[in-house]
Amino acid sequence: MPSRILLEIFKIKKFTISLAIILLLLFIGLVGPSIYPTDPFEAVFRPEDPPSSKNPLGTDSYGRDVLAQLLHGIRMSLYIGFTASLIALAIGVAIGSIAGVKGGLTDEVLMSVTNVVLALPSILLMLLIAAYFKYRDPMLVSIIIGVTSWPWVARAVRAQLLSLRAREFVHFSRMAGYSDFRIAVEDLLPNMAAYIFMALVLLMSGAMMAEAGLSMIGVGITRGASLGIMLYWAQMLEAVRRGLWWWFVPPGSVLVALSASLLMISTALDEYFSPRLKGR
Amino acid sequence: MSYLLDVRYVTKVYTAGLLSRERITAVNNVNFKLNSGEIISIVGESGSGKTTLAKIILRLLPPTSGSVYFEGKDVWSIKRREELRQYWRQVHGIFQDPYASFNPMFKVRRILYQALSLLDENERGDPEGLVREALKSVGLQPDALDKYPHELSGGMRQRIMVARCFMLRPKLVIADEPTSMIDASTRAGILKLFTKLREENNTSIIFITHDLGLAYYVSDRILIMYKGEIVEERTPDELLEKVEHPYTKRLLSDVPFLYRKWS
Amino acid sequence: MEGEKAVYRGLLKRPVVKLLIRKVVFLFITYFVFITIIFALPRLVPGNPLAEMLANILQTMQATPELVRAVERRLMEEFGLHKPWHEQYIEFLGRMLRGDLGTSYSLYPRKVSELVFTYLPWTLGLLIPATLVSWIAGNTLGALAGYRRGGRFDNALLPVSLILSQTPYYWLAMILLYTFSVKLRLFPLGGAYPSHVVPSFTLEFIAGYLYHYTLPFLSIVLAAAGGWAIGMRVLVIYELRSDYVDFADSLGLSDRKLLQYVFKNSVLPQVTGLALNLGTILGGSLITELVFSYPGTGYLVFRALTRLDYPMIQGTFAILFLTLILANFLVDLVYMVIDPRIRTGYIGE
Ligand SMILES: Nc1ncnc2c1ncn2[C@@H]1O[C@H](COP(=O)(O)OP(=O)(O)OP(=O)(O)O)[C@@H](O)[C@H]1O
Ligand SMILES: [Mg+2]
After folding, report:
1. What does pTM read for this prediction?
2. Is the CB of B52 under 6 A from ligand 1?
3. Range of the domain at C56
4. So what's the ipTM on this one?
5. Within 10 Å of residue B89's Cβ, how many Cβ atoms?
């Protein structure tokens, strides 16, 4: 992709601000735990203490430090969000492009499968699958989220591919004697790239939400902390009714900030690319 | 076998929809022949199958049945890369939608250099010079080369496509509504360029248009296409004297100045 | 007789009817697939959770040996693990079709179907009104914002709906519960009705029910409306750019009439959106129930999942999915009624 496009995208305020928020949270998740080395699982503080200089976000009912949990939780949620969305993206792009390129019977079979999976409510499917695993590590949770979230990507990729293939600029390349491979690399892929990136962004926000949902209902990761697991603990130990706001407000706010920023990024990209990709 | 192009019984059926199997016969049993240096027009309303026919001749869309012969050779039997390049070197097209004709990720330069790659080493000589000259002939400045498609108007894009064809000096140009977005004052100049191409290289041209008036002035023969079929084939002069198909009559009555002469 | 047959055949050829039949067949297939997944999952997952559950009953249940043996025998019969898998599958399908969802073992000896149908009404009573209200309110607000794009209303609504649309219902529920019940003491701390009244058609019960209903209802409505508003706003903006709007403008059509047209055209994709999002809405509201200790299906799912009560998991999910399918079908019917192309038989898709 020409660097001019990147330059123009970075001039969109909505895009840069959202990206900055994501990068900041990513940075916090990556280095936070080492800068603030308090163990998130060690119950060594006075339980249910409000924020203080010793525990900037207070402690939970077991006497564990909430800030430390939050830092580890951000890291975990981003990790699951990213791996799950990559898995979903890989499946979706593979199925969508095979269907779009092969056409015919292959296309029909793949799209029928996709439509059926699309009609199955992914959240119920995730809960159901997760229920049968006794131990759920972050990778398993990512896989469960990934294998249930790909259908709309497959459909979008196929539709986009079909529409691109019918564009006249592909004919021009063909008339210049380009091979199928070169056409795929020069004419199809760069125009798909923006869409695929948008899909990744949306998948990621969906995956982090799904992780939180799974955790809240009791089938999240079985060891470690994520934003969803923090909310789950808060819910199980009645943090709301006991007025321990510092326990459930931070993880929820971070989750909303992450998800809203991702949505803004994809909206900004869509507004930038749609008119161009349609040629107008 | 002296025809340049021989289109025989070409039919194209589109099947749309995954399971519903809706079938559209876009081109139905079309036959026509074209001599070297001849300019013909294909005139028809929207959806009559003109673009579909053009893409089949350009070997971009396989016909459901029928065949296309160019210089006696069945175009759809060509399989080898090198032969295909030779075909597109000699038969080139301009597409109807100037927006969809440009890959938005690349500068305008690409579309012209693509055509250059069809030329032989010795023909290429000074590529940049060739490209600039072609641009100048369609009334564009060389700085257009380094622009992105979305920075150009529809008319400018159409002129670039015309320039691409001129660089190749092919034996046959199929131009699908090549001037629809070019204003009337420039249009005459562009059309003159097509006739010049014929004078200099004996190039044949197939114009595809809605506009019977335009077809009347530029072509040696006019084919009227209606619902996928060629329903009438006339020289411009015949058109004013005897037409048979009711659709042609309707078309004529829509062109006021022709109608006046006719009545 | 003959004439009747012809009428019947003619009816089958009508695009609307064809479309309906295809929809029903498709939904039937998806339900079948879902049931098959429910059947296959525990048998595919490494470690065979069902066998493990049966083996664990002896240790996990604190009850008399006779009861334990009764539970074990009952579940053994239902899962039929000793039989070949295709026999198990056929029996499973048969039971599902008969509506026999098995016996819960964490709430032994209660039937899963009986349990689900005690809890489901509370869920539906919350979910259906909240979904409808959020859809209508969100779309109306979104359309107004899009119509006056960049205006003061738009500028206020956009960021709020953006954030709401990315807020999980259950987290908004926590915030509302904390603010209005814990801090301001305006609303109850949970439950579906006051503990001292029994569900009945008395004024006391209804007033208590609505009092408990407010916060859960608001959580879902607010969070869901944000998404609808954003979607509708974009649709209206696109619609306003299309040719027919310029045309109507040049004809001097009144603002009101134009807005009506634009709204009509933009609302169709939102109906499809509703059908597509029913699952997510259901999932979110089940968790919201947990926050409010609402006695709905969310509680049942949570209980089944955390106690590994597999018969209850299977049964609850089967019913929930069936509910979604029915809702989906209803939304599709509504779509057909309001889509002019289908109504007039213009398209068969
Ligand atoms: N890829 C496609 N799939 C299905 N149907 C198609 C496809 N392309 C064209 N058609 C249909 O085939 C018919 C002929 O289309 P075509 O584009 O050849 O017409 P045209 O004469 O070029 O029209 P226009 O003057 O509007 O360019 C139309 O009914 C069109 O809807
Ligand atoms: Mg056309």
Report:
1. 0.84
2. yes
3. 2-98
4. 0.91
5. 21
